[in-house]
Amino acid sequence: MVGCELDDDETKRGFNQYGYDGDDYISFDKNTLTWTAASQRGFTTKVKWDPNTANNQYLKGYLEETCIEWLQKYVQYGRETLERRVPPAVTLLQRKARGSADTEVLCHVTGFFPRAVEVTWVRDGQDQLDERVQSGEVLPNQDGTYQLRKILTVSPEEQRGHSYSCQVDHASFTEKKNYIWDPNMRSSNDNEGDDDLERDGRGRRDEVSEERRREVE
């Protein structure tokens, strides 16, 4: 087993060790350029390997330089991926609810990374709404980003005298953002409009002409 470690204070550690039949056999000490036998069986190998100073010097260089360089590259590649911030695109769609005068308003948040996101329907800019809100699961998109849908159902009485907005909080934002619903936007009442609110949209963006987005930061 060969490997290396690099601490935050730049302390470097490397190891090169072998096992035999499930037991420790022999390991390399890069500070003394010698081998340490874990058993009498490994002592024979130690006697052979200790005099090979050229190879032992090479192993020291590999553990302290080459291995560390590769480790730093892998850490950097991983950091660029794991720490990237991609802001979401937010779209509001509405339709009349089946069999009633209520309106269903979809807040579709998509294309964001990392996965963690907080999406909340808010009334009058302050009251968070939990009732009459359908929440989907966070789903993956084909490009490695994520999406989430939340549908608010509002009655005609609830619309009067109130404003509603979809509030989104994500690591790519410096602060929460509110996307205001405009009740005067055209509704999607056709069958294909129904599908646009109901389909999971995995890896796709909605293509509905009635969509409209308003943002207040």
Automatic annotation (TrEMBL):
A GO BP term here is: immune response
Q: Does the keyword Glycoprotein apply?
A: yes
Checking Gene3D superfamilies in the record gives: Immunoglobulins, MHC class I-like antigen recognition-like
Q: What PROSITE patterns does this protein map onto?
A: IG_LIKE (PS50835), IG_MHC (PS00290)
SMART domains (UniProt xref): IGc1
Q: Which domain of life is it from?
A: Eukaryota
The Ig-like domain extends over 88-180
How is this protein annotated for GO cellular component?
A: external side of plasma membrane; extracellular space
Annotated region described as Disordered, given as residue ranges: 178-217
* Basic and acidic residues: compositionally biased ranges: 199-217
Q: What keywords are annotated for this sequence in UniProt? A: Glycoprotein, Immunoglobulin domain
Q: Does the keyword Cytoplasm apply?
A: no
Q: Which InterPro entries match?
A: Ig-like_dom, Ig-like_dom_sf, Ig-like_fold, Ig/MHC_CS, Ig_C1-set, MHC_class-I_related, MHC_I-like_Ag-recog, MHC_I-like_Ag-recog_sf
What family does this belong to? Belongs to the MHC class I family.
Protein name listed in UniProt:
H-2 class I histocompatibility antigen, Q9 alpha chain-like isoform X2
The record lists the organism as Acipenser oxyrinchus oxyrinchus
Instruction: Give the classification, highest ranks.
Output: Eukaryota, Metazoa, Chordata, Craniata, Vertebrata
Q: What gene is it encoded by?
A: MR1
